[in-house]
């Protein structure tokens, strides 16, 4: 009887029968259709990135911005916006050694351009950044950061007249809160 059990035990241990079972990949909800899962991106994405370039030479900066815009389109990145910020003036004074006498004075103008990229795939971003850094002209700085509300506010120049009127209204006691009946 022991001899009869051993061959059947060997058969049971050798190769269990494999039955094909179709496993359905569900998105977690019974009420959502399966095709919604296929619409999601294959790779993680950066929602919104600001590519900021600054430099002292205006034509060189414009040319580099045009290059970056073309590179982004070539890599099929979504360029949602390109804009310039007002130039910033800086005054630099050179002093004579060991004195307070001004030897020379310079006025430097810093220009800034921005590209806003949306839904950037994570594998494409390093390629874009490497090419942008390798083509970076001398005297131009490149900075990439996530888009924030501060970036949007810096874009707009405040209206001097409107700010003066608001300050005058505050000096007069603020806006009137009484309602007429």
Automatic annotation (TrEMBL):
<dbReference type="InterPro" id="IPR027487">
    <property type="entry name" value="Ribosomal_mL48"/>
</dbReference>
<feature type="domain" description="Small ribosomal subunit protein uS10">
    <location>
        <begin position="50"/>
        <end position="145"/>
    </location>
</feature>
<protein>
    <submittedName>
        <fullName>Large ribosomal subunit protein mL48</fullName>
    </submittedName>
</protein>
<keyword id="KW-0689">Ribosomal protein</keyword>
<dbReference type="Pfam" id="PF00338">
    <property type="entry name" value="Ribosomal_S10"/>
</dbReference>
<dbReference type="GO" id="GO:1990904">
    <property type="term" value="C:ribonucleoprotein complex"/>
</dbReference>
<keyword id="KW-0687">Ribonucleoprotein</keyword>
<dbReference type="InterPro" id="IPR027486">
    <property type="entry name" value="Ribosomal_uS10_dom"/>
</dbReference>
<dbReference type="InterPro" id="IPR036838">
    <property type="entry name" value="Ribosomal_uS10_dom_sf"/>
</dbReference>
<dbReference type="GO" id="GO:0005761">
    <property type="term" value="C:mitochondrial ribosome"/>
</dbReference>
């Amino acid at each position: 009887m022991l001899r009869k059990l051993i061959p059947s035990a060997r058969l049971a241990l050798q190769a269990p029968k494999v039955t094909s079972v179709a496993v359905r990949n569900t998105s977690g909800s019974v009420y959502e259709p399966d095709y919604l899962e296929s619409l999601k991106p294959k790779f993680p994405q950066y929602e919104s990135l600001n590519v900021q370039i600054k430099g002292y030479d205006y034509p060189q900066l414009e040319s580099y911005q045009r290059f970056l815009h073309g590179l982004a389109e070539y890599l099929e990145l979504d360029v949602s916006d390109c804009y310039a910020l007002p130039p910033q003036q800086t005054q630099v004074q050179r002093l004579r050694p060991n004195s307070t006498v001004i030897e020379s004075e310079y006025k430097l103008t810093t220009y800034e351009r921005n590209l806003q990229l949306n839904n950037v795939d994570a594998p494409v971003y390093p390629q874009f950044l490497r090419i942008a850094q390798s083509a970076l002209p001398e005297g131009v700085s490149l900075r990439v950061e996530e888009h924030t509300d501060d970036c949007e506010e810096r874009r707009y120049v405040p209206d001097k007249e409107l700010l003066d009127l608001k300050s005058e209204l505050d000096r007069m006691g603020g806006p009137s809160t009484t309602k007429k009946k």
